[in-house]
């Protein structure tokens, strides 16, 4: 197992990663190839669950977030997108300002969308109002944004990061079976990549001061588990999570079973940068020493052409 | 060729596309599968050019944009990302507000990054200060954001959209050869998909009032071409562009040739949503009537499993 700081030092020194802001990271070279291989491998695993793959938008409307109680439960993570004013005078000030980075901050209009904090809200919104005659499994990958104050760490805890989710919508029995199977698949994936893993209970960091958040904590307790992977220095990262939401989203988005009861929802989510980090921590930054795995092998063939 | 409005009506009616804001679109069903197939096909074409694939960050710092003269030349397109204040009182107001969508607008801190307006600025920044002993070819795909006021159209002109670029950095002769080859490859790609295409000269819509923009227009004229694809109703969309930047970015980012002169840069950019729209306009929304192409065939096999 590599020391965390040493690993990042080596990757930065050879230009394989760089940050444009805390927690907003780019990848090049072997590290970019590894990320692409893991992205493909995890995508295949999730498509094996279902071929209903959506391409969700990169942002989400405030109405959907409000319906999901996001503002009350996790406001601290939100990142908003604002375009500039279309007024010529405002743009001219930006264009001609000696320090445009300062001027541009005053030129933005009030934000009208949030960048995705997760993928699954799009799925609940997409199924809103429906009566499900069969369980639904949807997969999607998207860039997500969660601001975590001063806690950002390169690859480990991104302000921007990449999430692949599988979302289940149906009855409670099937939801629990889905999550058992999901945790087993993620554990097998880790083993196949030569990574030690452990499944542990977890809770979302709901915004504590509100009564609403306390209700949510109470209601959702013991419904979240995480797959932990070592990243060196005795630390682990939550590289996947397995979440049972009871009928919370089924009620909020009026997704119902044929008997009229609200649907139960569950999801499995992978954080792709964290899998990349855990792989590098276990196997080191030198690609020649990496164990082969199917998606990596395919990419290697391409590079030989 | 399908009528544009009729095509979108059919796709919306069967749930294949939806907008969360003007120009911010999600895809499902056959349309999502088509997008994925085109994404893969275009990615293969670009990886054929080069295996130096970067995974650029989803946002870009203001210093890089200033260095690229972006604030002076195209400020009207900018979209900024802001996280919320970390102060508990501010978050509490959002969490408990009866209309959180209103409260959240006042809770955002000044933006510190812009969402990518294009992919290639990351490449110039990544090569800044280097002396190139051989030409560089880099490819990357990323979500991009350009706000175009009231001009947004679903798939045709997104506020958010997906760009795949190949960036060339080297000498002028090789840059021109790269662009000739790029335009030929894009034309062949269109033909292979059963799409009529035409290459036409174009100019970027530089922010007109500034003297700086006028200089840019003068300097960069006749250096941009676009591949136009029909989208019905007698209209076309610029589905790819081929751009020669002379030594503009070589100078700005101090990327030099071995003899000390600034490098010439050029890029080819594909707009994936526009290729999807042009394909649908030509072949209709019914997947059973689509012509096969390699990446689509591969996906079809997956769906048969």
The ordered string of helix (H) and strand (E) elements of chain A is HEEHEHHEHHEHEEHEHEEHEHH
CATH topology of the largest domain in chain A: BirA Bifunctional Protein, domain 2
Gross CATH architecture of the largest domain in chain A: 2-Layer Sandwich
Enumerate how many helices of chain A there are, as a single number.
12
Q: Give the uncertain stretches of chain A in residue-range form.
A: 301-305
CATH superfamily of the largest domain in chain A: Bira Bifunctional Protein, Domain 2
* Subunit organisation of the chains: homodimer
Helix content percent band of chain A: 25-40%
The most extensive interface, with participating residues per chain, is:
A-B, 79 and 79 residues
Mean pLDDT of chain A: 92
Shape of chain A: globular
- In total, the number of strands of chain A is 11
Summarize the main sheet of chain A. Answer: 6 strands, antiparallel
- Report, as a whole number of angstroms, the end-to-end distance of chain A: 33 Å
Give the total of domains of chain A.
2
Radius of gyration of chain A: 21 Å
Strand order of the largest sheet of chain A: 6-7-11-10-9-8
Structural class based on helices, strands and sheet pairing of chain A:
alpha+beta
Approximately what portion of the residues of chain A adopt beta-strand conformation? 15-25%
């Amino acid at each position: 197992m590599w020391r965390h700081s040493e690993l990042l030092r080596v990757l930065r020194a050879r230009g394989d990663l760089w940050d444009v802001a805390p927690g907003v990271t780019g990848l090049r070279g072997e590290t970019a190839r590894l990320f692409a291989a893991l992205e493909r491998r995890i995508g295949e695993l999730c498509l094996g669950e279902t071929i209903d793959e959506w391409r969700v938008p990169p942002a989400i409307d405030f109405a959907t977030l409000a319906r999901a109680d996001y503002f009350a439960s996790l406001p601290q993570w939100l990142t908003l997108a604002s375009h500039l004013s279309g007024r010529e005078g405002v743009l001219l000030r930006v264009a001609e300002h000696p320090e445009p980075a300062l001027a541009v901050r005053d030129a933005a209009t009030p934000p009208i969308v949030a960048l995705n904090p997760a993928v699954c809200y799009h799925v609940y919104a997409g199924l809103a109002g429906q009566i499900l005659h069969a369980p639904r499994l949807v997969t999607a990958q998207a860039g997500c944004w969660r601001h975590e104050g001063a806690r950002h760490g390169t690859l480990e805890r991104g302000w921007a990061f990449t999430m692949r989710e599988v979302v289940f919508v149906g009855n409670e029995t099937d939801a629990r079976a889905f999550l058992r199977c999901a945790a087993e698949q993620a554990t097998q994936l880790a083993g196949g990549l030569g990574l030690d893993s452990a499944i542990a209970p977890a809770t979302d960091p709901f915004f504590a001061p509100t009564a609403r958040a306390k209700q949510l904590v109470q209601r959702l307790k013991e419904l979240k588990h995480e797959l932990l992977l070592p990243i060196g220095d005795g630390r682990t990262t939550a590289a996947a999570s397995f979440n049972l939401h009871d009928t919370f989203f089924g009620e909020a988005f009026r997704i119902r079973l044929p008997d009229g009861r609200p649907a139960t929802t569950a999801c499995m989510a992978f954080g792709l940068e964290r899998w990349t980090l855990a792989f590098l921590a276990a196997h080191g930054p030198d690609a020649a020493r990496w164990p082969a795995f199917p998606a990596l092998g395919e990419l290697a063939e391409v590079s030989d052409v």
